[in-house]
Amino acid sequence: MNFTSSIFSTETMIVPGGTETILRGGRDLFPLLPEALHGVRRIGVIGWGPQGRAQAKNLRDSLAGTEISVTVGLRQGSASVEDARSHGFTEENGTLGDWLAVAADSDLVILLIADAALAEHHREIFDVLKPGATIGLSHGFLLGHLRASGSDFPVGHPVIAVCPKGMGDSVRRLYEQGATINGAGINASIAVHADPDGHATDRALAWSVGLGSPYTFATTLADEYRSDIVGERGILLGAVHGLVEALYRQFLINGADPVTAYRRSTESVTGPIARTISESGLPAVRAGLSEVDQDLFDRAYAAGYGPAREIIAEIYDEVADGTELRSVILADGRLATRPMSKIGGSPMWSHSDAAHALRDSEPAPVDPVTAGLFVATMIAQVDEFAERGHAWSEIVNESIIEAVDSLLPYMHARDVAFMVDNCSRTARLGTRRWGPRFQAAYEQLALPGLDRPADPALIKGFLDNPVHEALAVAAKLRPSVDISVS
């Protein structure tokens, strides 16, 4: 997608079939933020989850020395108040207050409370907004809910989104690393849903730059929530959980000891496979294998692509028609009295410490079957998004870059199970619903197909896939720093 800015110098990126406009970020752009925000003097961040905490702190730091303040708004009695105070947002200095009071006094109101809570309480927030205040989102979930309920955003208010392609901890941690490496951060998409005053695009770009995004691209709010919610149920988390559970069991059945089975499944995905894709692209995973292992990779890829594509298409349909969104809202009341159980009790996770202890002396290799199934699932999501009309920047960020540069490094440090049990409620619900579907598909359809020769057309389709060109272009914008997860 293309956009223009009256403040920032944009670039044209050549992608398969056309061009896209992008903005390259960096701290050298921070002096432009007050002008780009066009009249915004107070930013209200509503919520203090991982994204709220990270975005409030990043924007405060980026706008230091200007006349623009960043204030956090929380509900009375919120358990997050003390943590916000510990990070310097306090009632005494005017940067912490009641959520509705902060919303009423802010020129840009960034809504970062949980999806189900936002669906329930958005009208209360809309009712107190000052005339012309900009509504900011980091997820299109609310748009999906409004459409499903026959409602809309209030007239006369700019509606924009800045959606970091990584979890809140990544957004903050890489921003801090950017203090010494200009441009270090998490890529973000922007969406302009309503622009009554003509300045919405510049405000969205300023917000993205202020978060430290090294690479900002454009999407629509509808495309964002579809790709984001599908992605977290697919290759970003749900499919990864299903894959490693299926492979761990398969390797045990084939005679591996538990630690070896763990290393060949989980460690292989979160370690060498993720690093190879991040540094050299998807074909490099296959190219780095021996001839015998390439054949295993091809068999796994060919056996896994079809089943994975079917599930991702099903997820996409249920997100697009509102079914998946309604399930999140329905769960909110149920989980108020009956919290979700954790999946970290699965037997395989008891072997993580022993597997981690071998990292320095005996790094986990790329397992060809694991690699084939993982890459097949990633390409299946890429192809589904492309068929549904998503822009290439969105496709490579939501299906590849976010996975290998943000989420998988955290899973490598803390385990896939830890990630599932500690992510957002929306992502956690989706992973628990769709992860077992992927696991069953791998166990029942893909793994039994390893005995069959690979379909040459599927392998050619992988090697010739236009996503490699799009990813190579996007990779040139990647800062020369890996996220620190220590």
UniProtKB/TrEMBL annotation:
Its cofactor is Mg(2+). Keywords: Amino-acid biosynthesis, Branched-chain amino acid biosynthesis, Isomerase, Magnesium, Metal-binding, Oxidoreductase. SUPFAM superfamilies: 6-phosphogluconate dehydrogenase C-terminal domain-like (SSF48179), NAD(P)-binding Rossmann-fold domains (SSF51735). Residues 23-219 form the KARI N-terminal Rossmann domain. Residues 220-362 form the KARI C-terminal knotted domain. Pathway: Amino-acid biosynthesis; L-valine biosynthesis; L-valine from pyruvate: step 2/4; Amino-acid biosynthesis; L-isoleucine biosynthesis; L-isoleucine from 2-oxobutanoate: step 2/4. InterPro entries: 6-PGluconate_DH-like_C_sf, 6PGD_dom2, KARI, KARI_C, KARI_N, NAD(P)-bd_dom_sf. Signal peptide: none annotated. GO terms for biological process: isoleucine biosynthetic process; L-valine biosynthetic process. Gene3D superfamilies: N-(1-d-carboxylethyl)-l-norvaline Dehydrogenase, domain 2, NAD(P)-binding Rossmann-like Domain. Mg(2+) 2 binds at residue 228. This is Acetohydroxy-acid isomeroreductase. It comes from Microlunatus parietis.
